[in-house]
Specification:
Length: 428
Amino acid sequence: PAGGPRTGAVPGRHTRRLPRAGGMEAGVRLSAGASKWDIRKKIWDYMEANNLADFPRPVHHRIPNFKGSHQACDAVRELEVFNRTSEIKVDPDKPLEGVRLVTLQARKTLLVPTPRLRSGLFNKIVPPPGATKEILRICATSQGVKDYSVPIGLDAKVQVDLVVVGSVAVSEKGWRIGKGEGFADMEYAMMVSMGAIREDTPVVTIVHDCQVVDITEELLDDHDLTVDYILTPTRTIKTGCKRPKPQGIIWHKISYKMLERIPILKNLRYREKQAGKDVILKDEHPDFPNARKPEDSDENAKSGNTKLQTESTSAQIEHRHVGNHSLSIKSETHGALATVYVGNIPPGTRVSELKSALREFHASPLRLSWQGAQCRAFLDYTDKMTAESVVSSLKGLSLRGQTLRVEMAKNQRNKGQVEINGQRNESE
């Protein structure tokens, strides 16, 4: 059995070293003072040079897949923390495919983060009724995550019992190094912010034996996620890590660029700002070179084709008929307007509340058509690309604790015209 106070052999598992290429027993050797990037590169190079890597290759700049990953993943069945869980969050990385499969086979709720957090935080994987073993295998793949998933909003009552993340390197003390983009750390911080995990929720990582290396604690920052269990093809390591995990999003380390790239981050910031929390960004912080004042920086957060806010009133009304409570809007601009539908608005919400939220997300429309009695509104934008950017930005937005339904409008627009029957209308 593996020795050491932090290393435990799981019953039924043989604790042995996998043979290295050419029968070599030498592992990854790190020089003193190695940086995070030095460690990543050493491991990526070693796995490729010794043919330990598996598809997709090369493994550089990835959470590396490795030969024996399914064997390592299967060992999660023997963890008590897995058997007593009901909801498990597993990252979408290829080497974690086996854990996703085991979770589905055990009929537990599987949550997978959306790649690079582009369109929200979680997708819940929902296999079809009576799914065969083969269908479950497909559901566990990246394609299955796309085909059999249902998005989970920020207001969903999610309570994650176990977190499974990929790593490039990890130490027996629980220090972890990812591929350098910070998404696993960010996902964890977001889950804390939305109340989806507890302080004692265990974190597991799956790696090859060669990825378990000595990492100095000096390399860790306060936003870095640590792990409680390490599963390899040969060992199960209980780290006993006591270092506190991230307690939420550290806003002064978030840049405007990151905020624009991750729409759900905007939603969480809006919520925390409404709750009175400090959400000053890195670019606004006094220690940041050429720091901007928070009240002056919103305009600069917009960039390129994703510029959503406009003060323009160029869409003029040519015809308005209110005698029968209907309104026709026709744009003088060339081409048809693109319209966004906002539904599931809580009863009693005022139009000013929606306008305030839209300004916060740099998504003020050319015209807002309010149908409060039907709990919906329509937002006009100059073109389809801007409207689609708004839809992406507002995913998961909530008012009065209720998640809004935001999507491109269907059948409400016809060549720039809208008919709104039987409802009072308020416009920008």
